[in-house]
Amino acid sequence: MVKRFLVADVGATKTDLAVYSSDLGPSETLASATKTTAQYATFDSLIAAFLQSTGQDIDSAVFAVAGPVIDGCVTKTSSHLPWTLDRLQLQQVLKLDSLHLINDVEATATAIPHLAPNHLHTLHAGTPEKQGTLAVIAPGTGLGEAFLLWEREGYRTCISEGGHAGFSSSRPIEAELAHYVQEIEGYASAESVCSGMGLPTIYKCLKEGGHAEEPARLREQLATAEDHTTVLVQAALSPAPCELIDLTFTVFTSILGSQAGNLALTVVATGGVFLAGGIPPRIFPMLNRELSTFRRTFCNRGVMTEVMERIPVHVVTYPHVGLLGAYWTYQARTSQMFLQGKK
After folding, report:
1. Residues 20, 7: contact at Cβ < 8 Å?
2. Strands of 14-21's sheet, edge to edge?
3. For residue 135, what are the β-bridge partners?
4. Other CB atoms closer than 10 Å to residue 12's CB: what's the count?
5. Is residue 342's pLDDT more than 50?
6. 3-state secondary structure of 314
7. β-pair partners for 33
8. Distance of CA 289 to the CA centre of its chain
């Protein structure tokens, strides 16, 4: 029986949606759209607006959500979302046969084995180990981390909240940054500096610490902008970025390399590390320019340096990786339910 199912990648800034048919592959959608998350008072109103505009009837859904899924719920206090999502309540309101809530980085990680070579940009080729563990670090609005373990005939996704682990560094400028964040927030996490919301924090710390002067024009832009991260990225992409912007992205790249290396060591990611999330694709030129900085902080691990140099590092460039992961999650869980029903 052909079923139509909805998948969504639900972020703090935007929500991507697509309707698929069970008899078609992931490259063919029946309908798709991107919604601004903050424009909707509730998540089910966002879904209802999408389905009404497309005229699609669905049987099931998989929602990849920016936050930890605990007991079938994602609360706004534990995520960057404006609402709480309850799986059972949503399933009832939307009148679905089945509904799954998964973490958005879990969805991204699930998609990794299904990506084509042209969906990746290689920063460090390394020498990957066949069926080796894969690590995913995803700086978006926040910082997500996950990894994949090979089991029998495929990879199993394992979720993590490593982005909320403590941030510290022996490098003086980053140690200053950690102290700066701790003074303001009471706790310096990796997410507080290695994410979209972390970029303005790095910028302010460097500016207030007197490391470089802030140009008047940039100060005026930031004073009127709601999204400081976009302003900083645009300034960095300009033909002649100022010293303060250059230093901000040098520090960010160093931290990203260090955090990616920490994750690679923790899970022994001999199959490769994948930089996902919204930030890495947006800052390609800075990553390429600061590649030596990234490689140094990623690989420089004392007795483990030689091991780290063999680990590939890729940037995920596929724009809808969360939807792809949600699609494959639906297929996997549907197969599991079918097999369980056969027993």
Report:
1. yes
2. 31-36, 14-21, 4-10, 60-65, 98-103
3. 147, 273
4. 20
5. no
6. strand
7. 17
8. 22
CA 196 – CA 229 distance, rounded (Å): 6
**Segment (H or E) for 20:** strand 14-21
pLDDT tens-digit map of 165-218: 999 888 999 999 999 999 999 999 999 999 999 999 999 999 999 999 999 999
- Count of CB atoms situated within 10 Å of the CB of 334: 17
Would you state the pLDDT for residue 38?
87
Contact 138, 108 (CB under 8 A): yes
CB 37 within 8 A of CB 16: no
The residues near 181 (Cβ < 8 Å, ≥ 6 apart) are: 167, 187, 188, 192, 193, 201, 205
The DSSP code sequence of 236-300 is: HHSSS--HHHHHHHHHHHHHHHHHHHHHHHHHT-TTEEEE-SSHHHHTHHHHHHTHHHHHHHHH-
**Number of C-alpha atoms within 13 angstroms, CB side, residue 301?**
23
pLDDT tens digit string along 217-228? 999 999 999 999
Least confident of 74-78, 291-295, 308-312, 331-335: 74-78
